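User: My advisor asked me to double-check a structure prediction for SDR family NAD(P)-dependent oxidoreductase before group meeting. I don't want to rely on an old file, so could you generate it fresh from this sequence?
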Amino acid sequence: MATLAPATFLAFTQPADLLVQSLVAPARGALSPVARAPRQAATAMGSSLRSRRPSTTGPLHDRRIVITGASSGIGAAAAHQIAANGGTVLLVARSLDKLLEVKDSIEAEGGTAFAYPCDITDSDAVERLIEQIVHEHGTIDMLVNNAGRSIRRSIALSHDRFHDFERTMSLNYFAAIRLILGLLPHMKANAFGHIVNISSIGVQTSAPRFSAYVASKAALDAFSDVVATETLGSGVTFTTIHMPLVRTPMIAPTTMYDAFPTLSPEEAANLVVRALVKRPVEIGTPVGTFGELMHALAPKITDRILHQAYKAFPDSLAAQGERNPGEKAPENNTKSTGPGLSRRTLLLARASRLARTQPLSGTATAMMRLLPGIHW
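Assistant: Sure, here is a fresh prediction for SDR family NAD(P)-dependent oxidoreductase from the sequence you gave:
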């Protein structure tokens, strides 16, 4: 599998000429200018907002900030950076043990953090969570909807998996809305609030195999766009971050991503801090903006390009039917599956082994180089 130089994902506040250069760069033989730029460019967006020790006069001083999915990945990294900028972090995730590890780490650096274990797909649990944090902290200033799940599976393998769509919407959309609806009255009463939603570059590019994931993120985008027009006069604003590919546990099952240019969780956390401090309407990348333009100006051509991407990149191992490492094998599998399904399972397992060992095709490599950060 090819190894690529690290890519940079720039906010679309970068100069327009850099964006244009990245779009006309050749797809073969060299990375585009956006991908060749130093990786530190993404870090630079948040470097001025960070400090090694928590600040009592930082841009987030005296702000109480709820962040979901705070036990690992982007959430944990963002929690550290929020605390370093003076914010009080209210950590939310299902695992108390992991939350306490993040909390202790933040406090060891001199920051302030509180751990709140909660399954945010449970409406009763969310109601209790909101009552508790409002009672204990009074004012809740900001919310970061970071928790999410991703499913990379083609529609051809999804005909009998409606539950995938239900579970994805439950966490990525309905759970976020529960928190927004629960905290909005308190924010409006204080005439201030800011809500950051971690969306995806996939909403802008419509990458194949992510129908469940992209639909859930697009729904939250649309909800926030509408609600923002209603709450602006109350002092409550929204930021949507169209996050490019980030190396977190969520993408680990897709082994081909090992060769992809990605952001680190710390670089992604810079974007979260920027969203909290600057409070723009949207943060994204030139590639994502280009994807939106292509869909608007040349939809048929864009569909053809994406169809080629669909053919170039294989389904993930999980989608192909291979169990994740450590997963217990079902008992008496052949007894209940029948000969047809057993043969299908065998073929999918063989395909997954080939996908693990075969390098990416030339088409796939070219797309990966030219358009870094997309969830192929």
